[in-house]
Amino acid sequence: MPLRGDAARASADWATAAGRWAPRLQGLDIRRELEVLERLGGSLVLPGDPWWPSGLNDLVRPPHCLWVRGDPALLASRAGADDAAHSRTREDLVPAGPGSGHALALVGARASTDYGEHVTVDMASGLAAKGVVVISGGAFGIDAAAHRGALRTGATVSVSAGGVDRLYPAGNADVLEEVITTGALVAEVPPGCQPGRHRFLTRNRLIAAMSEATVVVEAAWRSGALSTAHHALELGRPVGAVPGPVTSMASVGCHRLLRQGAVCVTDAEEALELVTPLGATDPDSAKAADPANAGSGLLDGLDGPEAAVLDALPARGDAAVESIARAAGLAERETIAALGLLELAGRVERRGASWRRARGRR
């Protein structure tokens, strides 16, 4: 009896996979790769291991394993972890050893500008100082700047397109050696694999899945960093973009993301808001520190859509209606109606096509 529907498609997929893998089976011996990893002092992390990044399980095709050099504990309790991991407030984000904080991807163009690298180093350094593990791809430009900035104050993870025995690109070898010493270098392919062009695109999905949010600092119109952002959006992760000069081709991709609803991010504090709970107390607020003002909370007197919309607005900066609706879990029509009521109450302000919390309500 001929196969139909899903069974036929599954059979075709298996046939395609078998045809693709058959030429590679000759001479295959996993012990060889494991011996290389052992000589390098690395670790093999498997699904179900304590160090396995649970966010990878959200992928349609998660990796079968991770080859790691450095501290594999930095991979644990990241995106996709249980709700308890997301109930922490910003005061909890203090360096307390490997795996203690959140994880955020900081990516961008290889052909970066001085402006982009300066912003990246400052942002990565500020995030790492608060216990956030900065994840990037080890490439020239923004990726390397992200690793350098994070190494100043905390931990960073580099996701490689090739095997962890090949520090690629060679021009970043010093940075990657330091990443291995104080952070972790990760790959889904075994030692010996060349970093082929197609592997850069497939590794971008790992960067997005291992992170709770992705920030693109600089990107041209067709930058590979945009694929990381799109993977993050597909996984339901927040995406931020750093604005640049409108005359800079290195920022065209970021401006494109902003028009599509990405959150405008200009510093570490704003990036941090992407991985902290909505409505979390701002530690810089005098009200938060004063018990006498305990009744003057952000959402006092609100419920329903108005509370959800005000809570979804970033503590700093503006957001488009589409972005607010997505964060609040409401339809755009409901969001617009709630914003109108909040504006009448003096609790939000309109800035062109975007909205923000009224001053004093941050």
Automatic annotation (TrEMBL):
Every DprA winged helix domain range: 300-351
Pfam families: DNA_processg_A, WHD_DprA
InterPro entries: DprA (IPR003488), DprA_WH (IPR041614), DrpA_SLOG (IPR057666), WH-like_DNA-bd_sf (IPR036388)
Domain of life, source organism: Bacteria
Smf/DprA SLOG domain boundaries: 102-274
Family statement drawn from the similarity comment of this UniProt entry: Belongs to the DprA/Smf family.
Protein name: DNA-processing protein DprA
Species: Actinomyces ruminis
